[in-house]
Amino acid sequence: MCAMKVSDMVRIQVTPSGDRAYDVVLGEGALCELPALAAGRTRVMVIHPRALRATAAAVIAELRAGAGAGVETHAFEVPDGEEAKQLRVAGACWDALGRVGFTRDDLVVGLGGGTTTDLAGFAAAGWLRGVDVIQVPTTVLGMVDAAVGGKTGIDIEAGKNLVGAFHQPLAVLCDLSTLASLPAVEVRAGLAEVVKAGFIADPRILELLEADPTGSARLPELVERSIRVKAAVVSGDPREAGRREILNYGHTLAHAIEKVENFSWRHGAAVSVGMVFAAELSRLVAGLDRATADRHRELLRAIGLPVEYRGDRWPALLDAMRVDKKTRGRRLRFVVLEALGRPRGFDDPEPGLLLAAYGSVAAGGVSATGS
Ligand SMILES: NC(=O)c1ccc[n+]([C@@H]2O[C@H](COP(=O)([O-])OP(=O)(O)OC[C@H]3O[C@@H](n4cnc5c(N)ncnc54)[C@H](O)[C@@H]3O)[C@@H](O)[C@H]2O)c1
Ligand SMILES: O=C(O)C(=O)C[C@@H](O)[C@H](O)[C@H](O)COP(=O)(O)O
Ligand SMILES: [Zn+2]
């Protein structure tokens, strides 16, 4: 795998205050940096989904060849998709680490999409109260968002990502060649978080996607720009004491949709609907101009992402939003845009305004009493 010519890598530093700095390495062949980073460890556990069984085997072979004879390598397979982010799967990871006698100077590698990196990061955060993890995202969404910034966690019955930890990785290796096998529907899901980065901080992203909604012509640039947005935000506020919440744009409703749909919706698809809703709320409560609000729907639709959800689900969504992490007491909190690139928090919108904003995404009109 690493015998091929490795192109120049882009390196983006994340400097979380109070924690060690690390690089996000981006480019074709970034994975080839893993053996050197793993050298000197006694054990490496590669946590990967079923879909990446062959890639994991190749990574293990590279580690055996390049990390030194003393490194013992293990692979642990987890389910594809959101099914991996469950307590019983985290428990299975910890049992696997226990079986091989994983110690504090050993290394976990999270190889896969955002669900895998969230799970592997959480497993690493919990094991012996924290061991090193290197994240190797293999989806667009994982590269531009999930693997960067140290938010790890799992879902529980009460809601999405409700149990987790902040645990910064040692490095993030975004090898663009791993995206060759990624289905188009997963690329589109990842573009939702790219669009988010565009609206909250980097409007050039929106122009690039408007020119080519598949993103394919300029994917490396889109990924790099989005990582730069995320790296800058999490460096300033790694544990979401304040500003980091802007990365939650569109997510209050998105996480509620995911919960109401029993986690069968892709995260990126839910974020797409959530951003159309948040844009309309922004228009109603924060003075966002109509053209920028409409731009959300137009771009997300052009990409092929959903911009509507069931109108009869509003009561269930409202219930789910009450356990969002931004909620304080009984006050719901949303991220809104005052203008393009100017996000901020907004507390406790009037119920009528929330319902009106939901009207902008409600297929078949809103039914406030629900089904
Ligand atoms: N921690 C964070 O900051 C953060 C940020 C954004 C999203 N997330 C989380 O990320 C998750 C979504 O991540 P995702 O969209 O990457 O989904 P995912 O991890 O479910 O991956 C999508 C699917 O593609 C498969 N896959 C992964 N890489 C592949 C490849 N290269 N080729 C073929 N198949 C491949 C996976 O097995 C899965 O079936 C959600 O749980 C979301 O909450 C976390
Ligand atoms: O990194 C962050 O901070 C984000 O909010 C990024 C989001 O895209 C991501 O979906 C995150 O997992 C949501 O976090 P949560 O704290 O709302 O669960
Ligand atoms: Zn997200």
From TrEMBL:
<feature type="binding site">
    <location>
        <begin position="80"/>
        <end position="85"/>
    </location>
    <ligand>
        <name>NAD(+)</name>
    </ligand>
</feature>
<keyword id="KW-0456">Lyase</keyword>
<dbReference type="GO" id="GO:0003856">
    <property type="term" value="F:3-dehydroquinate synthase activity"/>
</dbReference>
<keyword id="KW-0862">Zinc</keyword>
<feature type="domain" description="3-dehydroquinate synthase C-terminal">
    <location>
        <begin position="190"/>
        <end position="327"/>
    </location>
</feature>
<protein>
    <recommendedName>
        <fullName>3-dehydroquinate synthase</fullName>
        <ecNumber>4.2.3.4</ecNumber>
    </recommendedName>
</protein>
<dbReference type="GO" id="GO:0046872">
    <property type="term" value="F:metal ion binding"/>
</dbReference>
<dbReference type="GO" id="GO:0008652">
    <property type="term" value="P:amino acid biosynthetic process"/>
</dbReference>
<feature type="binding site">
    <location>
        <position position="151"/>
    </location>
    <ligand>
        <name>NAD(+)</name>
    </ligand>
</feature>
<keyword id="KW-0547">Nucleotide-binding</keyword>
<dbReference type="Pfam" id="PF24621">
    <property type="entry name" value="DHQS_C"/>
</dbReference>
<comment type="similarity">
    <text>Belongs to the sugar phosphate cyclases superfamily. Dehydroquinate synthase family.</text>
</comment>
<dbReference type="InterPro" id="IPR050071">
    <property type="entry name" value="Dehydroquinate_synthase"/>
</dbReference>
<dbReference type="GO" id="GO:0000166">
    <property type="term" value="F:nucleotide binding"/>
</dbReference>
<comment type="pathway">
    <text>Metabolic intermediate biosynthesis; chorismate biosynthesis; chorismate from D-erythrose 4-phosphate and phosphoenolpyruvate: step 2/7.</text>
</comment>
<dbReference type="Pfam" id="PF01761">
    <property type="entry name" value="DHQ_synthase"/>
</dbReference>
<feature type="domain" description="3-dehydroquinate synthase N-terminal">
    <location>
        <begin position="76"/>
        <end position="188"/>
    </location>
</feature>
<feature type="binding site">
    <location>
        <begin position="138"/>
        <end position="139"/>
    </location>
    <ligand>
        <name>NAD(+)</name>
    </ligand>
</feature>
<dbReference type="InterPro" id="IPR056179">
    <property type="entry name" value="DHQS_C"/>
</dbReference>
<keyword id="KW-0520">NAD</keyword>
<dbReference type="InterPro" id="IPR030963">
    <property type="entry name" value="DHQ_synth_fam"/>
</dbReference>
<dbReference type="InterPro" id="IPR016037">
    <property type="entry name" value="DHQ_synth_AroB"/>
</dbReference>
<dbReference type="GO" id="GO:0009073">
    <property type="term" value="P:aromatic amino acid family biosynthetic process"/>
</dbReference>
<dbReference type="GO" id="GO:0005737">
    <property type="term" value="C:cytoplasm"/>
</dbReference>
<feature type="binding site">
    <location>
        <position position="193"/>
    </location>
    <ligand>
        <name>Zn(2+)</name>
    </ligand>
</feature>
<keyword id="KW-0057">Aromatic amino acid biosynthesis</keyword>
<keyword id="KW-0479">Metal-binding</keyword>
<dbReference type="GO" id="GO:0009423">
    <property type="term" value="P:chorismate biosynthetic process"/>
</dbReference>
<feature type="binding site">
    <location>
        <position position="251"/>
    </location>
    <ligand>
        <name>Zn(2+)</name>
    </ligand>
</feature>
<keyword id="KW-0170">Cobalt</keyword>
<keyword id="KW-0963">Cytoplasm</keyword>
<keyword id="KW-0028">Amino-acid biosynthesis</keyword>
<feature type="binding site">
    <location>
        <position position="267"/>
    </location>
    <ligand>
        <name>Zn(2+)</name>
    </ligand>
</feature>
<feature type="binding site">
    <location>
        <position position="160"/>
    </location>
    <ligand>
        <name>NAD(+)</name>
    </ligand>
</feature>
<dbReference type="InterPro" id="IPR030960">
    <property type="entry name" value="DHQS/DOIS_N"/>
</dbReference>
<comment type="function">
    <text>Catalyzes the conversion of 3-deoxy-D-arabino-heptulosonate 7-phosphate (DAHP) to dehydroquinate (DHQ).</text>
</comment>
